[in-house]
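Student: Hello, beginner here. Can you help me understand the protein record under this note? Any guidance would be welcome.
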Amino acid sequence: MKFSELGENDWAELAPYLDTALLPVTGLLGDETPPEAAALVGAAGDWLAPIESAFRGRTVTYPANHYIGPGDEQALNALCARVRSGGFRHIVVVSGRSGWDEGQLPEADLLAAPRAESDAPDAESLRRQIADMWKSAAAARG
């Protein structure tokens, strides 16, 4: 679900089931031309769409953060912590831009992004990564 689809009463009722926040990050740095910016926004959407469609009943997609990019991991990590404090057990950062330092994002449970500029999203692989994240967390809880 998208954040805007949830009213206060809906959230109170559905919060126990919607345990995963999807945090789209386009990775704009500010020096992109309009076509470059559009491409980055579109790429983030390409990585987000398969996750949203596969896990609609368990995820909430937050508004996109446009001007956080590789090199801004500290700010992104702090944002993940704030989103988690809103009641989410899992935080998945989704970006169409490569170059992120995952080691600097301990508050994110998963980074769904290309490893190289030329990587395209693989819907099955993304679904598997999310499912594996949930299974690992469940196993850790006992």
User: Anything to note?
Assistant: The beta strands are 20-24, 59-61, 90-94, 110-112.
